[in-house]
Description:
By secondary structure, the chain is an all-alpha fold. It has a domain at 65-233. 69% of the residues lie in helices and 2% in strands. The chain has a two-stranded antiparallel ribbon with strand order 1-2. The longest helix is centred in the C-terminal third of the chain and has 26 residues, at 179-204.
Amino acid sequence: MGLRVRRSHSAPSMPPRALPMLLAAAFAAAVLAIAAEPLGQPWLRFTFKPLTTALLVAWAWPRGADSPARRAWIRAGLILSWFGDVALLWPDAGFLPGLVSFLLAHLAYIAAFSRWQRFGAPWWPFAGYAAVAAVILAQLWPGVPSALHLPVLAYVAALACMAAQAAAVAVARRGEADASLARRAMLGGALFLVSDATLAFNRFQDAVPMSGLWILATYWLAQWAIAASLQSGANSPKDAPRRL
């Protein structure tokens, strides 16, 4: 028969106006979360820190229809990051659970980027980030409690590998149609490392001036950039028609 039926397994698309509104709401929530410390209003952090990441998850959700496996891993990374955000609302009791949540998030992002480009190819971004990680660890190590040596070492290794794999994707995709998306992934990986290094120095070394601003601003920019490395729904290919 010549009947052609279009079949789609995707959920109904989000109204076009909703996505900019979600991003604007995430920005507003981020500003309020960052303002908690200078205003001396901890309830702002407890309310708006997890809300900001949740709004970024909602904004990212429709993206990546052209690469479902990569989309699934990035969604997992964002959700694990939300759990880490909640845990770190209690900086002492929640530090280790938060560290584990973010370590798993980085592993999810590594899996996502490895769907885009073979892991470790090219190798030189890994050499560069390994050197950066070694310098950071050398500076932090005297202030890290012995009970946290292994978790911190594992976390830094995962973070550096995530940033390096994102950079490897950008290098490999130069000149390709998705090169701009790959550069967003690379930016996200680099900003995540900046955010976490600032957090670590603030916790294990001397206090960093305006630490809340630098840590959270770079963190949410990193999450946005990683999510934005997925193709937007408007530019994703349509489902192919099925011939019956």
